[in-house]
Amino acid sequence: MTVPTSNADYSPLPMFDLAANDEVNYGAIGVVIGHEIIHGFDDQGSRFDELGRLKKWWTDEDRKAFETWATCVVNQFYSYEIEPGVKQNGRLVLGELIGDLGGVFIAYAAFMKALEDKPRPKDIDGLTSEQRLFMSYAQSRGDSTRMEAQQLIVKTDPHPVARWRALGTVRKYNHSVRRSDVTKPRGIESPVLSR
């Protein structure tokens, strides 16, 4: 495995490619980097301080606002079925969902920052650079998993099944966002993380 290949679990998809357009790399490895940073503020990481000690460091107000926001994310994923009657367990996958949402937010914001004072990238095959970033993310997270394996994943794995990991996360974003409106992609702001 090469250095630019992500392997939290075996993945044959490269997450970084020098020959790719920037938005493709931001949508793949940029999201992975952001995802891992955000774990320090998710449902588990937020309970530990900067030295890794179990410690209450958020205000009660911040914790309450975070729990309200997190409940919305959990409920969204409880609504996703992998087949009729078999749903994703939103509570089980919350930490990974927060990582994905935050990772996409960070990668998107970083890409927009990188574009400041530069000519807007040209559309390719009718897709904007923003759309290509989201597509890159979805492709980096998507896979082809047998239904039997997905049935096991929704019961035991803290990672969402690939389809909903890709589609459920990007559904939180405004796909028509323009370059002049990039400070807060709609629907994902955590009241704690947005401070």
Account of the protein in words:
- The longest helix has 22 residues, at 94-115.
- The chain has one domain: Collagenase (Catalytic Domain).
- The model is unreliable at 1-7 and 175-195 (pLDDT under 50).
- The chain has helices at residues 22-38, 60-78, 94-115, 129-141, 147-156, 162-170, and strands spanning 81-83, 86-87.
- Helices cover 46% and strands 3% of the residues.
- The protein is globular and about 45 Å long.
- With 195 residues, it is mainly α.
- Classify the helix fraction into a percent range: 40-55%
- Note the run of SSEs as H and E: HHEEHHHH
Gyration radius over CA? 17 Å
CATH architectural arrangement: 3-Layer(aba) Sandwich
Q: Structurally, how many domains make up the residues?
A: 1
Structural class: mainly alpha
Q: Strand order of the main beta sheet, please?
A: 1-2
For the terminal residues, how far apart are their CA atoms?
38 Å
Q: What name does the CATH topology carry?
A: Collagenase (Catalytic Domain)
Q: Point out poorly predicted stretches.
A: 1-7, 175-195
- Biggest sheet character: 2 strands, antiparallel
Mean pLDDT: 83
Concise overview:
With 195 residues, this protein is mainly alpha-helical. It has 6 helices and 2 strands; from the N terminus they run H-H-E-E-H-H-H-H.
Secondary structure layout plus pairing:
Elements lengths: L21 H17 L21 H19 L2 E3 L2 E2 L6 H22 L13 H13 L5 H10 L5 H9 L25
Antiparallel strand pairs: 1-2
Helix pairs in contact: 1-3, 1-4, 4-6
